């Protein structure tokens, strides 16, 4: 697929970035990505992100982990029966520990895998639009730039306070 | 004090990754020698047998188990600070969370070594792993040993993943300011993070969930460790308060270790603007709470020994206070329950020397506590014929010292190669630069 023409605006101030995002949305511009050195929920609100689905994967991981470790314990106890002092071969109370540990373990592993994969990571090459300043003190907006819209979009970004606007292909 | 900017945060934190002074290499070299010596002692023990240690009936759990419980305890504050205080939105956790998490990971790794060191035939350790085998043997999932195996391995995995998740955005910041092979290594571990809205969105949700999942784990791990003892019928072990008592003690020792490590770290790397005195004071205030819980547990143990009317319990607790190991008992009481009370006075929790001294005292006291419980209870149980005193031998003492060397060695490497303070989280705590507002304001300034 041919790379899509795009416009990158770099902002030193967070409020300018938010203003630019709102204005671009008003003008029906297509925001491809927003780069930020911090996690700021205001950006997600403007972009209209839905609640992350990570919690479902966490739940599935937890259920899978808990049941599989208890399943393993049950299988182990039935395969090698230690009948001592009239104690049951399958004791429910001590099995709470493997259930608990299995639940937490797989829930955490699933959660970590989810955020990595949903964040489209790992990636070998950094995107062309990425600027190393985004991990320091600058914010960035990457906009789709259809033919004939460049001047309008650059004007929006500059008016909002962008210190630098440049063409990139996304 | 000048407020911090985003650039300042990057510069200050990443300066720790630059070339260290010559003294750093000397210290790391000495610590490495300590580790080598301990490894040699372990090799000697494996070749000769456990008889080279002081392990002798009735003291079958020697310093190795004391070390195991001590290091698991140290491991607690990391997750407490990074997970529980994150859920409570305690802002003072931000500058110290990363180091505390690193401490947790290293301490759990070291704790996990001691059950192996305590094995006579360590090469058979894999017998505890549940897998189909030609011996048709399976581990007993009712055993506290199995509980331990599950709890420690889960805690280690979760701590490493939680720590790594927090590190990814910072590794990207290091990558962007490195060149050559360093850039490649940091780039590999940062997974190609670019801080896009999509990445932050899922990352933020996942981090919150990880904190929520790690929180019950903190409470459970030392509870499970305490059941190693509480499920036995030995007087001094067989107690229902052991789980909360151990958890409070673990957090107590962990917080003290945080102060012990962070006060020098703050001075060496000039982190005064990031790790403020107010942050250290908050740790000290939390230590008062854990110290009071620990002190209450000591009192309740004596009350129960008296109230139960059980002669064996009574004699065990009298032996603790006035018997062969009584100096360790009084060190424990003073250091863990009395010394933290000085933090009630503002002057003691706002001066670095007093914070550091009391933190060291608590570390000593918590080691003494594990010694008193584990060694003391086994030395004098039901019948006088069975009594006996444990003599510490040079082999286990060397391995114990080696474990401290390993802990500090790993921490020194961490401070040199990874951002010891979370760059992204510190930035979130300072007011972002807004047009016309000029410079940013630091939360502690």
Explain this structure:
The complex is a heterodimer of chains A (170) and B (445). The mean pLDDT of chain A is 91. A four-stranded antiparallel β-sheet of chain A has the order 2-3-1-4, with helices on one face. In chain A, α1 (14-26) packs antiparallel against α5 and α3 packs antiparallel against α4. Chain A is of the alpha+beta class and 170 residues long. Chain A is rod-shaped and about 85 Å long. Chain A has two domains: 5-49 and 126-169, Alpha-Beta Plaits, CATH 3.30.70; 54-118, no CATH class. Chain A has helices at residues 14-26, 41-47, 54-79, 96-118, 150-160; strands at residues 5-11, 31-35, 139-144, 164-169. The N and C termini of chain B lie close together (6 Å). In chain B, 50% of the residues are buried. Mean pLDDT of chain B is 90; it is low at 438-445. Chain B has helices at 6-14, 22-48, 63-74, 76-87, 94-117, 144-176, 180-189, 197-230, 242-268, 277-307, 311-322, 326-338, 346-349, 352-379, 394-417, 423-429. Chain B contains 16 helices and no strands. The radius of gyration of chain B is 23 Å and the shape is globular. Chain B is mainly α and 445 residues long. At the A-B interface, α1, β2, α2, α3 and α4 of A face α1, α6, α8 and α16 of B.
